[in-house]
UniProtKB/TrEMBL annotation:
SUPFAM superfamilies: P-loop containing nucleoside triphosphate hydrolases. It comes from Hemiselmis andersenii. This is Uncharacterized protein. It comes from the Eukaryota. One of its GO terms (molecular function) is GTP binding. Keywords: GTP-binding, Nucleotide-binding.
Length: 102
């Protein structure tokens, strides 16, 4: 865990991470669930999806584990269709081709 967390700290400023990203108990539960899963869903609030997008977790699932992952935009009914489409394009461009999907 320490090695993994140090890698996260190298890529992201500590103050930009929330409490749960520093908590080993949370990560143990996430890792157990991922070990038993064939695919992971990353559910993001469409009103501000970048705030909820866990970059380190996405990379862990898709690159380290080689698993498929899908981004699900939730609460799309609260956002104009143009904004939802723009977010989909953003994530497709940001994540590119690979085991993940948007």
């Amino acid at each position: 865990f320490k090695v993994w967390l140090e890698g996260v700290y190298r890529e992201h400023a500590r103050e930009s991470l929330n409490f749960f990203e520093h908590n080993i108990q949370v990560w143990r539960q996430v890792w157990r669930a991922l070990e038993r899963s064939d695919i992971a869903l990353i559910i993001l609030d469409a009103r501000c999806p970048l705030f909820h997008f866990p970059h380190a977790l996405w990379r862990h699932i898709t690159a380290d584990m080689g698993r498929d992952a899908v981004i699900v935009l939730n609460k799309c009914d609260l956002v104009p269709l143009e904004a939802v489409s723009a977010w989909v394009r953003h994530f497709e461009g940001m994540l590119g081709e690979g085991p993940g999907s948007c």
